[in-house]
Write a structure and sequence with these properties.
This protein has 475 residues and is of the alpha/beta class. The chain folds into two domains: 366 residues, ANL, N-terminal domain (Rossmann fold); 102 residues, GMP Synthetase, Chain A, domain 3 (2-Layer Sandwich), CATH 3.30.300. The chain contains 14 helices and 27 strands. Strands 4-3-12-11-13-14-15-16-17 form a nine-stranded mixed sheet, sandwiched between helices. A hairpin with a 7-residue loop joins strand 9 and strand 10. Helix 1 crosses helix 2 and helix 4 crosses helix 5. The longest helix is centred in the first third of the chain and has 17 residues. It starts with a strand and ends with a helix.
Amino acid sequence: MHFDIATGSFADCGSDPGRAAVVGADRTLSWEEFRREVGRWVAEAKGLGIGADIPVVIYGHKEAEFLVAMAGCLSLKAPFVPVDTIYPEERMQRIASIVQAPVIYRTAEAAFRKLGQAALPTVEKDLAYVIFTSGSTGEPKGVQIGREGVMGLVDWMRDCFRMGDAPVYMNQAPFSFDLSMYEVFAFFGIGGTLVLNSREQAAEPEAYLARLARERINVWVSTPSFARQQLLSKQFDGAHLPDLKVFLFCGEVLPHSLAKRLRERFPAAQVLNTYGPTEATVATTWVFIDDAILERYDPLPVGHAKPESVVRVAGDGEIEILGPHVMRGYLNRPELNADKLFLESGQRGFRTGDLGEMGEGGLLFCRGRRDEQIKLNGYRIELQEIDKALQKLPGVSGSAVVPLRRPDGSVARLVAYVTMPGHGAPASDWKERLAASLPPYMVPSELLLAPDLPVSTNGKIDRKALEQAYLARSN
C-alpha cells in the first residue's frame, strides 16, 4: 500500500494493510489504521474550512499524528507548513503569520487551533508544502515547493536510489528541516514503513541503535554529522544493523574519512551522497561513494544532475539549478525572487549561492559559499539573523557570530562577540533571551565582549579575524 501524491488518495489498498506504516515516537499505525486516521483528519479539517491552497501549520515533533496531518493536507491539496518544536513558540507564531495560515495543528494534542485569520488561498497554486529557512534580514524565509517537485523526488528515489521494495526508512531530522522530506515523500509515494525517532530517543545511542535494529531499518537518512556521532558506538556496524542497505546523505559536506569508515563498518551497504538546496525540493545531484570514488577523490564529489534537471557552474563559479523541482519562489519576497530565480527555455532556474566546480563527465564538486550562510549539523543558518537577535540584548551596540570549524571545514559550533559601550557585561540570561526567538542550534555556545569589531577592506565585519582571535585566545 502507498499514498498517491498526484491524487491525494491511498493506492494498492489490498496489499498488506496490516503492515506497519508509521512507527512514531508515541504510537504505531498500520497502513489500514493510517488510512482511517487520515480520513478522520480530513473530515475535521474540512469542517474548519480547510481546502485546496489553504496553508496549514503543523507543529510537533515525531508523533505519528504529524504524518497523518501531512497526508491529510496532501489529500485536500492544502500546502502544509511543517514546524518542529525545536522552534520556540514565538517563532512558530511568526511563521504562521507570514504564511497567513488560518489554523495551527498541534500534533501532540491532535488538535486544531484557530488563529483568527481568514482562510485565504496562497497565490501559488497546487503547492505541496512551504518550509522556512533562516533569513539574513532576521525574518525566516518561506520556500514554496510545488507538487510537481515532490512527485519528481519520489520518481528519482524509486528509480535510482537502490532502496529495494517497501523499504523501512529511518526518520531523524526535524520535519522543519527539508532533509526529512526525503523519507516522508518516499514513504508516501513508494510505500514501506517510516520509523520516526525523537530527539530524546536519538540522544541514547545504544537504545537508539537497538530500536533501529528491531525495526529492521533499510534506509538511513541523515546529515553526515549525525552519522559521525554514531561511530562512537561499537554497535554501529553491519553486524548490529544487518538490514541496512543505503546510507542517504544530504545537508552538508560528506567527509572522505566518514565515508571510508562507513564502508569499512557496513561493507554490504551503499553510501549515497546527494546535494541540493531547500529551494530545489531537497536535492538535485547524486553519486554512490564506492571504493573507486574513495580512492580517486578527496574531497568527495556530490554527483551528477538528477533526471529532468540541469546543474551547471556559472562563469563566476556559482552553482545554478534548473528543472521542475525548483521552488515556486520565496513567499512574499519579490526582491529575493528577482535576485535568485530566473526562467530559461520555459524552465525555472535557481542561483544557489554555492560555489562549485565541474569535473570530468559532469561530476559536480562543491567549493563553499559566496556569502555568509553556513551549515551547522545540516541546519542552514544566515549569520546575520543571529547578529540581529544579539543586538536586541540589553546594552549591545554591535555583534558578530563566528562559526568555528573542524579540520575538514565543517562547522562545529558558534561563538559570538558583542560590543557594549558603557556596560560591564552581557545579561546573565542571554541564552534564555536568545532562545525565545531562535531555535537552539542558532544560539551561540559562548558570548564574548570585544572593544570593537574588526572590518575587512569591503567594510563588512571580518568574522575570519574574530575566529583567529578566538583560537589564539584558546591556545
